Amino acid sequence: MATPNYSYEKRQRELAKKRKAEEKRQRKLNGPSQSAPAEEGGAPDEGQAGGEAPPAGAPDAQG
Protein backbone atom coordinates (compact mmCIF):
# COMPACT_ATOMS: atom_id res chain seq x y z
CA MET A 1 0.00 0.00 0.00
CA ALA A 2 1.31 3.43 -0.94
CA THR A 3 1.93 5.99 1.77
CA PRO A 4 0.20 9.37 1.54
CA ASN A 5 2.28 12.28 0.33
CA TYR A 6 1.31 14.95 2.85
CA SER A 7 3.66 17.56 1.37
CA TYR A 8 1.96 17.23 -2.01
CA GLU A 9 -1.50 17.52 -0.47
CA LYS A 10 -0.47 20.57 1.54
CA ARG A 11 0.99 22.23 -1.56
CA GLN A 12 -2.23 21.59 -3.48
CA ARG A 13 -4.27 23.15 -0.67
CA GLU A 14 -1.96 26.18 -0.63
CA LEU A 15 -2.25 26.59 -4.41
CA ALA A 16 -6.03 26.31 -4.24
CA LYS A 17 -6.12 28.94 -1.49
CA LYS A 18 -3.94 31.30 -3.55
CA ARG A 19 -6.07 30.71 -6.63
CA LYS A 20 -9.25 31.42 -4.70
CA ALA A 21 -7.78 34.60 -3.19
CA GLU A 22 -6.65 35.78 -6.63
CA GLU A 23 -10.10 35.14 -8.10
CA LYS A 24 -11.67 37.07 -5.22
CA ARG A 25 -9.26 39.95 -5.80
CA GLN A 26 -10.10 39.99 -9.51
CA ARG A 27 -13.84 40.00 -8.74
CA LYS A 28 -13.35 42.98 -6.43
CA LEU A 29 -11.37 44.85 -9.09
CA ASN A 30 -13.88 44.12 -11.86
CA GLY A 31 -16.89 44.98 -9.76
CA PRO A 32 -20.08 43.03 -9.16
CA SER A 33 -21.38 43.33 -12.75
CA GLN A 34 -18.56 41.20 -14.20
CA SER A 35 -18.25 38.53 -11.50
CA ALA A 36 -19.80 35.72 -13.61
CA PRO A 37 -17.21 35.81 -16.47
CA ALA A 38 -14.37 35.81 -13.93
CA GLU A 39 -15.66 32.55 -12.45
CA GLU A 40 -15.97 30.94 -15.88
CA GLY A 41 -12.42 31.98 -16.71
CA GLY A 42 -11.14 30.36 -13.49
CA ALA A 43 -12.43 26.88 -14.30
CA PRO A 44 -9.99 26.14 -17.19
CA ASP A 45 -7.08 27.32 -15.04
CA GLU A 46 -7.83 24.60 -12.53
CA GLY A 47 -7.70 22.00 -15.27
CA GLN A 48 -4.40 23.32 -16.62
CA ALA A 49 -2.70 23.83 -13.27
CA GLY A 50 -3.61 20.39 -11.96
CA GLY A 51 -3.74 18.39 -15.19
CA GLU A 52 -2.32 15.29 -13.54
CA ALA A 53 -3.11 16.30 -9.98
CA PRO A 54 -6.23 14.69 -8.52
CA PRO A 55 -8.51 16.68 -6.23
CA ALA A 56 -7.66 16.73 -2.54
CA GLY A 57 -10.26 14.04 -1.80
CA ALA A 58 -9.00 11.62 -4.46
CA PRO A 59 -6.02 10.15 -2.53
CA ASP A 60 -8.46 8.90 0.09
CA ALA A 61 -10.49 7.14 -2.57
CA GLN A 62 -7.37 5.49 -4.01
CA GLY A 63 -5.88 4.55 -0.64
User: Structural class of the helix and strand makeup?
Assistant: mainly alpha
How do the SSEs run, as a string of H and E?
HHH
- The parts where pLDDT drops under 50 for at least 5 residues are none
End-to-end C-alpha gap: 7 Å
Q: Could you tell me the mean pLDDT?
A: 74
Radius of gyration: 15 Å
Number of strands: 0
User: How would you sum up the global shape?
Assistant: rod-shaped
Largest sheet: none
Tell me the β content.
under 5%
Distinct helical segment count: 3
Percentage of residues assigned to helices? over 70%
Characterization of the model:
- It is a single chain.
- It contains three helices and no strands.
- The protein has 63 residues and is mainly α.
- The model has no long low-confidence stretch (mean pLDDT 74).
What are the key terms here?
63 residues, mainly alpha, single chain
Describe the secondary-structure layout.
Layout: H1 6-30, H2 35-49, H3 58-62
Give a short synopsis of this structure.
It contains 3 helices and no strands. The protein has helices spanning 6-30, 35-49, 58-62. Helix 1 runs antiparallel to helix 2.
